[in-house]
Amino acid sequence: MAGWMQQVLDWLDAPQPDTVAPATVPRSRRLAPPAGESPQAGAFSHPQASRELLLDGVRVAYRLQRARRRSIGFIVGQDGLAVRAPAWVTLAAVDAALRDKSGWILRKLGEAQARQRQQQDARIAWGDGALLPYLGDTLALRIDPSQRRSGQCLADAQGRVQLYLGLPRDAQAAQVRDAAQAWFMRQARAHFTERLDHFAPRLGVQYRSLRLSSAATRWGSARSDGSIRLNWRLLHYRESVIDYVVAHELAHLRVMDHSPRFWDVVHSVVPDYAALRQQLRAQPAPPWD
Questions:
Q1: Is residue 23 included in any domain, yes or no?
Q2: Is residue 106 within 8 Å of 40, Cβ to Cβ?
Q3: Half-sphere exposure (CA, 13 Å, Cβ side) for 33?
Q4: Taking residues 247-273, what's their average pLDDT?
Q5: Strands 153-155 and 227-231
Q6: Other residues' Cβ atoms within 10 Å of the Cβ of residue 102
Q7: Which of these, 289, 42, 277, 91, lies nearest to 178 by C-alpha position?
Q8: Do both 177 and 259 map to the same domain?
């Protein structure tokens, strides 16, 4: 196929548009369930919400857009519920569609909110001693003004891996973050290239280029011309999880969709891909802001 044919993986596990959608009155304000309570006990609000609806007693404020399409579609993502509907569909029909899928919508909103809390808990305190997940283990950042060990990974007396950064002791958080990211991106390119070279011949494909991505919601993409893009933050995960994403994108060079035939191709080189895919969805990478 010509042009961009990007096949992507969302760490927010955003659902594909379905034949369903939203409806009712006011504007947006950030409404979140109290800590420890189920989604049904609180409310959900999209930051660009224009309408609200009570779903099983839960207030859901969502973004409604009119679009040139045949059916009502909706997606639950990091910001909440967004709905796209044809101009000719009445608000009553949108209401009915949402109510019909209320259980699914509330479950997905709850899952998205839980992932956001996980990310908040995993937020990194950039400075000497900051801990980062790295290839399934933990990496500690060490500020080393001497530059002697800058960029080196060394184990301490307890066997803990530490990454030394050549920065002044009083380096700002942004400096520490940027230096760590530069190191991660160098490691990512080397690691991804090695795994692409490993899986490509096994799948009978050739890739033309590798680009690193910093996308917020995509782990990878593949183009029909053989270009591969992979998110450098994959280095937070175990090598087997990275292998799944690499194999996934290379498999798209044979099958440019997510049909059963595509998953058969992935299974041929990563038999436990389903479990690895679930791990990727269940363990959000820490935010780097």
A1: no
A2: yes
A3: 22
A4: 95
A5: unpaired
A6: 18
A7: 289
A8: yes
Write down the H helix ranges in the chain: 91-100, 102-121, 173-203, 239-251, 260-269, 273-282
Q: Record the tokens describing residue 258, joined without a space.
A: 């997510």
Q: Are residues 164 and 74 in the same domain?
A: no
Tokens of 278: 């679930």
| Mean pLDDT of all residues in 115-140 | 81
Say if residue 204 is in the same domain as residue 73.
no
CA quadruple 141, 144, 149, 151: dihedral, nearest 10: 50
Instruction: Compute how many other C-beta atoms are within 10 angstroms of the C-beta atom of residue 229.
Output: 20
Cα distance between residue 82 and residue 217, in whole Å: 16
Residue 269 structural domain: 131-282
- Quick: pLDDT tens for 217-251: 789 999 989 999 999 999 999 999 999 999 999 99
Whole-model pTM over 0.85: no
pLDDT in tens, 106-116: 988 988 887 77
